[in-house]
């Protein structure tokens, strides 16, 4: 096989002729061996392992278009079952009636949530007889500077002012006081993040909702909340069952999550659920006569594989509530244990402890002058570990941190090996007189803002 490979493989242009399928496979397979080991990637939140049965099920569904509900009615049924399961998990008043859908990921889900918030605001102004032209009447969305970049994209694509509340001091995410201070009559909603990608912390959703309740009583402004639960919406129900963050709070209009993060499915699926039909304006839902059927659709794309939807339903069926709780509790236990041990090494100051999302961040203590977190990240990469180092956003760009994401598959034993390699890295770095790497050398872009 290897001897039959041509001396030069065209990479940037379509080959002139055909190639044996086994040879084509081997060429692509060999190149992909140069990728990192997904199990050692502590930068990504995305699921990197599923059971063989899930792999087989997805392979059987690769040819199914989830949007074609007439041709694939059972796939459509699985999608709606998942929506109802999530609606019940997140305490929707009427889970069987709560509208929702699958998406390609939480970013698309956030776009749909933002569109629904904007349309509700527009309709409310129309009913009130308010007709103000931009920029005076330009809608705005209040959120912390720690939101994922998809919210910046939403604001840019749909002409909404992003009111980003900057970090300040030890406040690294949105608080109730800051949220209300940035709201006015043109605010379409407040985004509360259940699990910041910077440090794994939960934003205080209940406090934000309570503050907005007070604002409504004092001013009449009725501002809904969207919970971006890309990660936390599949952690909190199992690890923090008494935490009020979901539809138990009447002001929460919608919730999204990533099925391919702590939903435990391979990349390519997200979910969004609205409290009830009133939270999703009907004029955003299109009814399309496509391939022989009349289908309601609310999405930013059309054709989409059904394999991930089938895999999500399989995982819900396979694990159930108790299974998810066991997996997520284990991840949190690994995260909190690893955070504590890293905190006791000496050079690090923990920003979070892994006790909300199984994610934590740490910075170097001020007295450490011979190396940077970027040096630590580079040394760990030599041992195969991908642990991102990055600076925080505007107003806290002085804060540089390492972030550790614990997912299903990072066991206590692997965490021990990581700790051993971290000790080795620190021993090597202590020989340096000064840092060799800064933010400009980082290969990891946090993704909350585009690079300049």
How are the secondary structure elements laid out?
Elements: H1 21-32, H2 52-61, H3 73-89, E1 100-103, H4 106-127, E2 140-144, H5 149-157, E3 161-165, H6 176-181, E4 187-193, H7 205-219, E5 225-228, H8 236-239, E6 252-258, E7 270-274, E8 286-290, E9 293-297, H9 307-343, E10 348-350, E11 359-364, H10 373-382, E12 389-391, E13 400-405, H11 412-429
Parallel strand pairs: 2-3, 2-4, 4-5, 5-6
Antiparallel strand pairs: 1-7, 6-7, 8-9, 10-11, 11-13, 12-13
Walkthrough of the structure:
This protein is an alpha/beta fold. It has a domain at 59-316: Type I PLP-dependent aspartate aminotransferase-like (Major domain) (Aspartate Aminotransferase, domain 2, 3-Layer(aba) Sandwich), CATH 3.40.640. The chain has helices at 21-32, 52-61, 73-89, 106-127, 149-157, 176-181, 205-219, 236-239, 307-343, 373-382, 412-429; strands at residues 100-103, 140-144, 161-165, 187-193, 225-228, 252-258, 270-274, 286-290, 293-297, 348-350, 359-364, 389-391, 400-405. Helix 4 (106-127) crosses helix 5, helix 9 crosses helix 11 and helix 10 packs across helix 11. The longest helix has 37 residues, at 307-343. The radius of gyration is 24 Å and the shape is globular. The model has no long low-confidence stretch (mean pLDDT 92).
């Amino acid at each position: 096989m290897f001897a039959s490979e041509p001396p030069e493989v065209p990479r940037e242009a379509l080959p002139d002729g055909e190639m044996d399928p086994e040879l084509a496979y081997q060429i692509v397979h060999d190149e992909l061996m140069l990728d990192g080991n997904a199990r050692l990637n502590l930068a990504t939140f995305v699921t990197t392992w599923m059971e063989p049965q899930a792999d087989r099920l997805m392979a059987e569904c690769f040819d199914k278009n989830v949007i074609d509900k007439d041709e694939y009615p059972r796939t459509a049924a699985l999608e709606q079952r998942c929506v109802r399961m999530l609606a019940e998990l997140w305490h929707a008043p009427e889970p069987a009636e709560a509208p929702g859908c699958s998406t390609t990921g939480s970013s698309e889900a956030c776009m749909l949530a933002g569109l629904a918030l904007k349309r509700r605001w527009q309709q409310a102004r129309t009913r009130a007889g308010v007709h103000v032209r931009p920029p005076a009447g330009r809608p705005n969305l209040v959120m912390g500077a720690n939101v994922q970049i998809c919210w910046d994209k939403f604001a840019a694509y749909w002409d909404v002012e992003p009111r980003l509340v900057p970090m300040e001091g030890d406040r690294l995410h949105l608080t109730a006081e800051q949220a209300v201070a940035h709201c006015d009559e043109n605010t379409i909603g407040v985004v509360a993040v259940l699990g910041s990608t910077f440090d794994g912390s939960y934003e205080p959703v209940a406090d934000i909702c309570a503050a907005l309740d007070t604002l409504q009583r004092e001013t009449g402004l009725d501002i809904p909340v969207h919970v971006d639960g890309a990660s936390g919406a599949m952690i909190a129900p199992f690890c923090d069952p008494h935490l009020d963050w979901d539809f138990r709070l009447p002001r929460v209009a919608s919730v999204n999550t990533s099925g391919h993060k702590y939903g435990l499915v391979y990349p390519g699926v997200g979910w969004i659920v609205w409290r009830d039909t009133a939270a999703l304006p009907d004029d955003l839902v299109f009814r399309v006569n496509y391939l022989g059927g009349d289908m309601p659709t609310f999405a930013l794309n059309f054709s989409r594989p059904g394999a991930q939807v089938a895999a999500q339903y399989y995982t819900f069926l396979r694990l159930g509530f108790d299974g998810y709780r066991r997996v997520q509790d284990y991840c949190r236990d690994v995260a909190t244990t690893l955070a504590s041990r890293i905190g006791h090494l000496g050079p690090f100051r923990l920003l979070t402890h892994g006790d909300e999302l199984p994610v934590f961040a740490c910075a170097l203590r001020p007295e450490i002058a011979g190396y940077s977190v970027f040096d630590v990240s580079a040394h760990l990469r030599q041992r195969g570990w991908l642990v991102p180092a990055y600076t925080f956003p505007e107003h806290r760009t002085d804060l540089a941190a390492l972030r550790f994401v614990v997912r299903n598959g990072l066991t206590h034993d692997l965490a021990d090996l990581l700790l051993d390699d971290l000790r080795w890295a620190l021993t090597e770095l202590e020989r340096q007189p000064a840092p060799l790497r800064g933010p400009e050398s980082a290969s990891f872009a946090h993704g909350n803002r585009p690079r300049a």
